[in-house]
Design brief:
Blueprint (H helix, E strand, L loop, with lengths): L1 H19 L17 E8 L2 E10 L9 E5 L10 H9 L3 E5 L17 H14 L5 E6 L1 H12 L4 E7 L17 H9 L3 H12 L9 H11 L4 H17 L13 E6 L13 H4 L5 H9 L5 E6 L6 H4 L1 H12 L2
Helix pairs in contact: 3-4, 5-8
Amino acid sequence: MLRATALALACLFGSHAVAAQAPTYGEQLEGFSQPYPLKHFDFQSQGQTLQMGYLDVPAKGKANGRSVVLMHGKNFCAATWESTLDALSQAGYRVIAPDQIGFCTASKPAHYQYSFQQLANNTHALLDHLGIRQAIILGHSTGGMLATRYALLYPQQVERLAMVNPIGLEDWKALGVPYRTVDQWHERELRLDAEGVRNYERKTYYDGRWKPEYERWVQMLAGLNQGPGHKAVAWNSALIYDMIFTQPVVYEFKNLKMPTLLLIGDRDTTAIGSDIAPPEVKARVGNYKVLGPQVAGQIPQATLVTFEGLGHAPQIEEPQRFHQALLEWLGR
């Protein structure tokens, strides 16, 4: 009996200790361990000096002279491309992974007119600064929407376009998902914590599954949101959600002119705002098993690779399988 009581108390206090030890990071993710040296790009935008953090990884294998730009998702950062940075650099590519304004290691401005055009322009300025005139663009999740906009704005500078479970394969607002104001998004983001992130990602991204290696990215996001920049991070996150919801790219996929790869985990159910949608609307949005082939049919030079049984981030769930498909397509 005493032993059982002692064990229960140890578990209780142990859980409190883990909670107390949960990491927090600075407003630009200061304190987080990056997979490669973090660099910074300072530039002028909308009347203010802003900064993007980025990872620039040279080819580790025999250099092929080609560059790949990785665009992260809403709940992700440049660092979450860790295994893809490794795989591409080993295959001879130079790989650049920026953090967009409002995210991760980048500035969190008090006032900013967010648009995918603006973020694409910022990224273009970074690549110009690095002397990169043409690149392969690879976007994941929200980064897929940004990659699409980038390719539409700068078609001559995009050698190829690849998207991993991009959101924006449908127009949620047009399908009946209710609108949230920026203030409503802000209130929601102020409450963000690790448990909420973990539960959401398990259910929506990973089809109910969970692996220990996902936890680092949960703590990264929660630690950023609960750190000293809490208010600025939440406010920028709210502005970004409004951008995502109100600026669909689905109507312009037909205008993409370059070879395009869609890498789709078919168990993904991500759809912005579906948590407040009526049941009949929620049932018909975020169905990537249907959306993948549907959008591939709209893009003139599309190749579709479906990862059966995988969710929103196949590059994290099964990196070897994912990178094999990506590198095979890039090598054609």
